[in-house]
Amino acid sequence: VQLQASGGGLVHSGDSLRLSCAVSGFTIGNYDMIWFRQAPGKGPEWLSTINTGIGRKFYEDSVKGRFTVSRDSAKNTLHLQMNSLKPEDTAVYYCATADYTYKGRGTLVTVSS
Predict the structure, then answer these.
(1) pLDDT (tens digit, 9 = 90+) per residue, 37-90?
(2) Burial call 71-95: b when 16+ CB within 10 Å, e when fewer
(3) What one-character-per-residue DSSP string does 8-50 give?
(4) Could you give the percent of the chain with pLDDT greater than 90?
């Protein structure tokens, strides 16, 4: 099983980024999948869930309206579109199954003011 997040980088406040999480070893449509992040010196912070099946989506309040989770079943890839980025969004971003059974390597997002 592998989950590899990509798409991070250094951006300015107000910019957008689209993160991807390529998954192998299981079918993401069969699992509730999440994005979470960890900022320097802080604990993990859940950001978003996309449910299996019809794919209901849930968001943490601080990213609601700015971030959008989606999945590409054909490519077995999870995405996180991040708009209106703020310096406080700076963190390493990870994808995982909702029960954290499978967790990938993260991608660093740095937002400068």
Answers:
(1) 999 999 999 999 999 988 899 999 999 999 999 999 999 999 999 999 999 999
(2) beeeebbbbbebeebeeebbbbbbb
(3) -EEEETT--EEEEEEEESS-GGGS-EEEEEE-TTS-EEEEEEE
(4) 96
